[in-house]
Here is the input.
Amino acid sequence: MPLAPPPPLRIGLTGGIGSGKSTVARRLASHGALVVDTDAIARRLTQPGGAAMPALRKAFGDSVIRPDGGLDRQQMRQLAFADVLCRRRLEAILHPMISDETQREALAGIAAPVVVFDVPLLVESGRWLDLVHRVLVVDCSEDTQIARVVRRSGWTVDAVRAVIEAQVSREQRLLKANDVLLNDGIDEAELARRVDVLWQSWKDLGAPTL
Ligand code: ADP
Here is the structure.
């Protein structure tokens, strides 16, 4: 009888907006990691016909619904930023759904050597920390974050700053890290090399224990 593969190493990948998380996730996927992207899951849940839409409409009314039936993310973000109760209600609806879907997707990676949970708010919502063996933080300065997001997404400097301020501080994030990729003052090719070194170090760890 063939031996069952060892359980995958579960990595929580996080970092501030524009730190380079998605770039790192893609490189890890190219090595054979299964990447579970919680932002993509949240987007699917809130697209037209998405599973979260009836509850969101009930909680926040039509003003957060686009004409096509999907969530008006900008409107919702403004509400959630302005009012902590709104943010909590939003989280109470979305988080359990995101968790369920994340677990379902992670099961598909049962044969992968590594499952990466790409969770921008991993440190903020501590519940993810119990699910993973290691936390990988992609780190860079605030100036670099701003420059990248302005270039990538065309946001204003103030808009990027507002998101950075709503996220946990760089120091708090680093406190939770088992691995850190410093993605500052280097190009994407060097970042890829650093990811490759990290991948090798995970392989050297052997089978995970929690
Ligand atoms: P996040 O997912 O953390 O928001 P991304 O991986 O999307 O960040 O990176 C933000 C932008 O910065 C992307 O356009 C990406 O190509 C670019 N980028 C990431 N790392 C580097 C780097 N070391 N040098 C130059 N550009 C980078």
User: Anything to note?
Assistant: The pocket of adenosine-5'-diphosphate is lined by residues 15, 17-23, 148, 152, 183, 186-188, 191 (CB under 6 Å).
